[in-house]
Structures are given as C-alpha cells and as structure tokens.
Amino acid sequence: MGFYDTTNLYPDSSIGYLVKVCNQLGMAHLDRAFADEGLSAVHWSALISIHFGRAPTCAALARDLAHDKGAMTRMIDTLEQKGLVRRLRNDDDRRVIQLSLTPEGEAATLRCRDRVIACWNEWLTGWTHDEITTLIAQLQRLRATLETAAPCAA
C-alpha cells in the first residue's frame, strides 16, 4: 500500500510541492545575495557545477541542472561575456566545446559559495546536525529513486 491517497495529498503534505517551493524560495534569496556580483542563483548553479567538474560541456550542464539546452547555451553566452566562463575546443574531438571558469569566474564562484554557506547556515539555525544529515540523506535517496524510476502509469 502506498503512502499517498485521496485523503492526504495536499500541497503542504506533497513532497514534490514542498521541494519545489523550498527551491524557489532559496533561489529567490540567493538572487538577492548575489545581486552585487551581477549574478543570479541560476548563474551560480552553473558556475559551481563547472567548478566541481560536474558539467564539462554545455549539454552536460543542461542535464546536470535540468535546463533546456538552448537556454543553457544563452546563459553560457552571458557568463562568457561577463568574463567568467570560457569555451575551449577539445583537442581529441574538435566538435566538443569544453567549459571552464576563468580566474575571474573562479573568484566569483568562491565568493558566492561563501554567501551560500552563510545563507544555509542561517536558514538551518535551530536544526540539529543529525536532522540536517538525515534530510540530506533522504533527499539523496529520493533523487536516486527518481533517477532510476520508470514512467508512472496513468
């Protein structure tokens, strides 16, 4: 027997809704935190993904951040114009364009990372270390489940 049924699926009990709203609220706060850098939270998400090597190409970055490839290309154009990202042709396959941070991009990414750390520490005030660790583990488990889930039957 599943957890949800017609008696308990409401926005404030829906995992999907709660995760979405938490993400939207956090991104809005981070947009304000990065305003003086001329960056948005979405820009920073791209920069930090490149920083950690999660997304060596624009297509990989779009997959990593669950964005449209066209929109991601336009965002990389913007970050490149700001002098934060550079595109380099792959020596082994000239069709592949590798993304990397410029020194300015690396510095901006790390400054914003420090702001993200401060924000999350503020938002999690009153949470125990165990509560935070448990939440992270549960979200990682949910992500893994969703990554391998078959399409839902109608």
Automatic annotation (TrEMBL):
GO terms under biological process: response to stress
GO molecular function annotations of the record: DNA binding; DNA-binding transcription factor activity
Classification via Pfam families: MarR (PF01047)
Domain of life assignment: Bacteria
Segments forming domain HTH marR-type: 11-144
Keywords: DNA-binding, Transcription, Transcription regulation
UniProt keyword Transcription present: yes
Protein name, as recorded: MarR family transcriptional regulator
Source organism of this protein record: Sphingomonas ginsenosidimutans
